Every structure is written in C-alpha cells, then in structure tokens.
Write the structure tokens for this entry.
Amino acid sequence: MVRMTRSTEQKIIERAVKGDKAAAERLIKAHQASLYAYMLRISGRPDVAEDIVQDAFVRVLTHLDRFDPRYRFSTWLFTIAKRLYVNACQKHKPRYDSEIVDGWRGVDSAPSSPTIDTEVRGNARDALQIALGELSAEQREIILLFHQQDWPIAQIARHMDMPDGTVKSHLHRGRQKMRRLLEATEGHRSTVAEVWA
C-alpha cells in the first residue's frame, strides 16, 4: 500500500471528485493491494476477492462525493467491500486455498526461492491459514485488520460498528483459539515452532 497523509489523500479525493482520472488512479493504487489482501484472507477465494475489490472501487469512485472526510478513506472503502462480500457469500461458500492466499500479503515482496527456509515459512503460513479458517467471521476479520492491515482498535471498532472493548475481546479470544488449534495439532505445533524459534 502506498502510504500517504490524510491531508494529501483528501486533496487527491477532491481532485478525483472533480473528474481528475490521474487522482482516481492514484487513490486506487494506494489501496488496491491492501484491500485485495484483506478480501482474499476473508473470503479464501481469489476470484471472489478480485470481484469484490473491483466492485468496491467502482462504487467508491461513483459515490466519491459522498465521502465524509472526518473519517479515514480506507475505513469507508473496506466497509463497502465488506458489504459486497456479505452479498457475495450468498452465492459462494468460503474455500481456503492456502498456497494462493499466502502469495498475497498486500505489499510487494521479493521473489521466493525454493529453499528450506521458504518451505518452513510456507508450512507455517498454511498452518496459520487453517487456524484462521476455524475462527468466527468476526474474529477472523478483526485479526486480519489488526495484524495484516495494522489498523488500530478504534478504527476496527468503527468499521465493525462495535465498542472498542468488544473488538479487543474478539481479538484476544481469536488469538487464543488459534493458539489452541495450532498447539493441538502436532504437525502445526512443530511447523509454527520452527518459524518462531
């Protein structure tokens, strides 16, 4: 994700509202990778994630004049994408493909080489993805927003329409459940231990 200050982002939004295509492209580039990574982790399906990201940007750009600058643009964008995902869930059941999901982190990463270290990290990501898939939808979304997107608790609370304390509780319980799941499976326990050692 291309980081920018809120004031810079607001100026870009104002230009995009006036029809500046370059500003709209810059806004998309700033948020596209992180939104895709988030939707891929939530849905577990690249095709669904791609469709949702595309639809979310179409809706956002169509209604950009409705954006309230008192809030973060990313919160508005992610909320729209989440609503689209809920609608898409009526058509698609989540299916987790760890190899594809792990290839997208929301930021550019160096090409991987077939080394033991890469294999160990890949196994750990697979184990974490399986544990993530066992969480409730709310816990999974909160953990992803907090750990993958680096959103603060207050921003997650606004996005999820929950009190801060409830978000903290879901985050805590979700992490505990993931730990229990990883520790309960011998293969997962040793795989994750290799990475964290």
